[in-house]
Design goal:
It is found in: Cytoplasm. Its main location: cytoplasm. Residues 3-226 form the tRNA methyltransferase TRMD/TRM10-type domain. S-adenosyl-L-methionine binds at residues 114, 134-139. This protein is α/β, with parallel strands linked by helices. The protein folds into 2 domains: 2-154, SPOUT methyltransferase, trefoil knot domain (Alpha/beta knot); 171-235, tRNA(m1g37)methyltransferase, domain 2 (Trp Operon Repressor, Chain A), CATH 1.10.1270. Helix content is 37%, strand content 18%. It is built from 8 helices and 9 strands. The protein has helices at 11-18, 21-28, 65-76, 97-103, 121-127, 143-154, 202-220, 222-235, and strands at 2-8, 32-38, 51-52, 62-63, 84-94, 108-113, 130-133, 187-188, 191-192. Strands 2-1-6-5-7 form a 5-stranded parallel beta sheet, sandwiched between helices. The relative contact order is 0.14. The mean pLDDT is 95. The protein binds 6-chloroguanine. Residues 88-90, 133-135, 137-139, 141-142, 145 line the site of 6-chloroguanine.
């Protein structure tokens, strides 16, 4: 069982976004738990204010440290050890499958979602263990990145995917992009399904799929292909 705590000003967005399809089913089955915490609930301001103008001037508002710190402490008191706290920021390390695998081993994770022009640095220094970005572009908040990470991590948690879903052959599992897939009908817009897939010859199918993976990776992700070739060299293949 994995428990995800999300500190956010938009808890409904995270709850609704993760309550569907495979992740929703896994929550229902008790493999995952999503605890979306509203940072605003920890404001002591009479207007429930959680942000203020940046010292030194500049555009936008900065999230204040106290409500976030109180929300974190409230979580922490129910945990045996200090959890990893992931702050979603374009200034973080870029999220990859390897990191998803590593984080899937953690029983509990805390995601801190910022908004506006960011969060007061002092609370980040105090509680954040990992700064993570989901790619080189700027989003309006950390909620979508947190949901992206939770989806990628969850499907690696035992029991979340069923046998049909968890092939382990998908893109990045072997460093190559996945081969093309086909289903019925056998002919669509005059295009036939590749004959080898109808042959029942498992070894030929395996070889064809590998070749397609290589071709696709070279064409679409030459950067990944370069890494794959280097790794092959190291393994002496
Ligand atoms: Cl994690 N947060 C925001 N606000 N923008 C991003 C991001 C994260 N990753 C890429 N862009």
């Amino acid at each position: 069982m994995n428990r995800f705590h999300i500190l956010t000003l938009f808890p409904d967005m995270v709850r609704d976004g993760l309550n569907t399809s495979i992740i929703g089913r896994a929550i229902e089955a008790g493999h995952l738990e999503i605890n979306a915490v509203n940072i605003r609930d920890y404001s002591t301001n009479k207007h429930l204010k959680v942000d203020d103008y940046p010292y030194g001037g500049g555009a936008g508002l900065v999230m204040q440290p106290e409500p976030i710190y109180r929300a974190y402490q409230d979580l922490r008191k129910n945990m045996k050890k200090a959890p990893r706290v992931i702050y979603l920021t374009p200034q973080g390390q870029v999220f990859r499958q390897e990191m998803a695998k590593e984080l899937a081993k953690e029983e509990e994770l805390v995601f801190l979602c910022g908004h506006y022009e960011g969060i007061d640095e002092r609370v980040l220094e105090e509680i954040v263990t990992d700064y993570v970005s989901i790619g080189d572009y700027v989003l309006t908040g950390g909620e979508l990145p947190a949901m992206v990470m939770i989806d990628a991590i969850s499907r690696l948690v035992p029991g979340v995917l069923n046998n049909d879903e968890s092939a382990g052959e998908e893109s990045f599992e072997n460093g190559l992009l996945e081969y093309p897939q086909y289903t019925r009908p056998p002919v669509f817009l005059d295009k036939e399904v590749p004959e080898v897939l109808l042959s029942g010859h498992h070894e030929n199918i395996r070889k064809w799929r590998y070749e397609q993976s290589v071709k696709r990776t070279k064409e679409r992700r030459p950067d990944l292909w370069e890494v794959y070739e280097k790794e092959k060299g190291k393994k002496g293949e």
